[in-house]
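Dear colleague,

Thank you for sharing your sequence with our group. We've completed the structure prediction you requested, and as agreed, I am returning the results in plain text so they can be pasted directly into your records. Please verify that the sequence below matches your submission; if there's any discrepancy, let me know and we will rerun it promptly.
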Amino acid sequence: MTVIRGIVVHQTGAKTAQSSLNSYLNAGANGAHFLIDKDGTIYQTGSVYWIQWHVGKIRARCLAELRCTPVEVAKLKKMGVSAINKSEMTKSVPDRYPSNQDSIGIELVGGTIGSGNDPLYEAVTKQQNASLSWLVSELQTTFKVPLTEVFRHPQVSYKDPHEAETAKW
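Please find the predicted structure tokens below.
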């Protein structure tokens, strides 16, 4: 990555850091730049200058922030997820959400609870939140990323709505 515009906070869906680290070794695996274990240990799993495939297709930011023009709303209502992503990627942050190409991903170890299409996630630990707060602050300072460009994964992409909902930075 040549420029870092945002930070996206994820939750692994796995109950252990080792499980997540092992999954990063699979061919075609997705991963983030950092992994924070339940005890607060931070692992850097990729260079912050590498694109990591952690975001997925991004949502229309103007819709989420209620600032689309009526013309944009009408156009977006006719588009599917892929077309919205393609359209959004013609914009720059902050007119669109940060994407794989310009954001750092932070994973918090935490398994899912229950099953189905809308799983809940284990609560983020106090130690994880402390490490997350420190890491986000350091990344913000280093890369001049404003707090307005730090998001939970489901805010920016079409992911489980409960992912990282107890994360605090």
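Summary note from our side: Helices lie at 17-23, 61-64, 70-77, 81-88, 126-143, 153-156.

Kind regards,
the structure core
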